[in-house]
Automatic annotation (TrEMBL):
Protein known as: ABC transporter substrate-binding protein
InterPro entries in alphabetical order: Bact_solute-bd_prot1, SBP, TAT_signal
Organism superkingdom: Bacteria
Signal sequence annotation: none
Native source organism of the sequence: Streptomyces albiflavescens
Xref: SUPFAM superfamilies: Periplasmic binding protein-like II
PROSITE patterns (alphabetical): TAT
Length: 437
């Protein structure tokens, strides 16, 4: 396997049709299609090689990870063999991957998604690594990196906010004003549609159904508040609760302004329509920047926080997922893997990564930020000002529940947005299968 290769079995991962076809009939075990496997594990593994499972298949993160692992290899004298699989396939296959012979170190997410595998004993604790890197991280980041048992299982690399992105020049040309409240947001969308634009860029086709969760989360956070949202994600609240019904009522008000045929479009194509001024706004993460190659366009991109719906909650919550790394439960080269994780948790590694991929923010507080562009600086301010930080629905909840129940249900609902009662009842009927008292 090459140093940076997409796994040859990746193409066999379940596509959108497969997942939707199995709506509400799949359990967590269904995540385990044989599409993600180790690159270089097994008996007789090379003690001078560390294997690294990566979900960074897109060009920019792939290049950024190569820069980081290349620097580590040069400093340590160890070789890093990288197994790169596309993001969606990686997520759908992670359970079986970790139960088999996974790579020594692998990319994953902070918070619940990390805790889920720590509780299943599918990863190794990293307290000794944190003894060396801990000074660089805030208490909030440390909390996101610990399992329910209080041990560390996660080394963070970066985070990034979700917001409503737009092009400044388009707003100036058309005389659009940045909305702060829901009514202003809907009024702006109506005006954009009248002006011949697709008001909200949208693409959730193929493996990109996860992208719809940004709007769902913000609608819930703004209408019902952070505490309710987290209770819903943790399976503590019924999906037929009137507050959940209210989310789909609000979403249905917005759907007429979505870009047509979103179910057949990738998030990258939707983002490109924003960059091309064919769409007026996009509810998306800062990773939108991965699509930008012209720095004059990057300078023209701006964002505003998702609008206020209920003044009780205002705009006090921000979606800011944190990405990083974990250690497999039985690494073939434990010493080398921990050396890699110590390097990855350092300020230098974050600076190297951000130098290639300016669509994220360094989490290590000792990392230099003087090279940040305007979007990165504003993003850091948004996260710093938040009263509550959510990770993202598929990271704050049981992965099987979101992937095989919630996502297919909401995706199907978006195709014909009715009052949502049938969809919510189906989701609720599966909740007890994933969450037990």
């Amino acid at each position: 396997m090459t140093q940076q290769s997409r796994h040859p079995l990746a193409a066999r991962g379940p596509g959108r049709r497969t997942v939707v076809g199995g709506l509400f009939g799949l359990g967590a075990a269904a995540l385990g299609a044989p599409v993600l496997s180790a690159c270089g594990s097994g008996a007789g593994a090379d003690p001078k090689t560390v294997t690294f499972g990566s979900n960074g298949a897109d060009a920019t993160p792939k290049k950024a990870y190569a820069a980081v692992t290349g620097a580590f290899a040069k400093d340590s004298g160890l070789k890093v063999k990288t197994n790169t699989v596309d993001h969606d396939t990686f997520q759908k296959s992670i359970s079986t991957y970790l139960q088999g012979t996974p790579d020594d170190v692998f990319t994953w997410f902070a918070g619940y998604r990390m805790q889920y595998f720590a509780k299943k004993n599918l990863c190794s604790p990293l307290d000794d690594v944190w003894d060396k890197i801990g000074a660089g991280f805030s208490d909030a980041t440390k909390q996101l990196s610990r399992g329910e048992d209080g041990k560390y299982y996660f080394v963070p690399l970066y985070n990034y906010p979700w917001a409503v992105f737009y092009r400044k020049s388009l707003f100036k040309e058309r005389g659009y004003q940045v909305p702060q409240k829901w009514s202003e947001f809907i009024a702006l969308a109506k005006r954009m549609k009248k002006d011949g634009l697709a008001p909200i860029a949208s693409g959730y086709g193929g493996g990109d159904s996860w992208s719809i969760l940004g709007a769902f989360d913000y609608l819930d956070l703004r209408a019902n508040g952070y505490d309710f949202h987290m209770s819903l994600m943790r399976g503590e609240v019924s999906w037929t609760d009137k507050r959940t019904v209210a989310i789909l009522d609000l979403w249905r008000e917005l759907t007429p302004y979505y870009q047509p045929s979103a179910g057949g479009r990738s998030w990258q194509d939707a983002a490109q329509s924003l960059l091309d001024k064919k769409s007026g706004m996009a509810v998306i993460g800062l990773f939108l920047g991965q699509q930008i190659t012209d720095e004059t366009i990057r300078a023209d991109i701006d964002f505003f926080p998702f609008p206020e719906i209920d003044g009780t909650h205002g705009q006090d919550a921000v979606e800011a997922p944190t990405d990083g790394f974990m250690l497999s439960r039985r690494p073939k080269n434990e010493d080398g893997a921990k050396k890699l994780l110590e390097f990855l948790g350092g300020a230098h590694a974050e600076e190297l990564y951000m130098g290639v991929d300016p669509s994220n923010l360094a989490v290590n507080e000792q990392a230099k930020t003087d090279s940040y562009n305007a979007l990165q600086k504003k993003s850091a301010e948004l996260i710093a000002s938040a009263k509550h930080i959510s990770q993202f629905a598929d990271r704050d909840s049981d992965p099987g529940f979101i992937s095989t129940v919630v996502l297919p249900g909401l995706t199907e609902w978006l195709g014909h947005p009715d009052d949502g009662s049938g969809t919510l009842k189906k989701i609720e009927s599966q909740r007890s299968r994933f969450f037990t008292a």
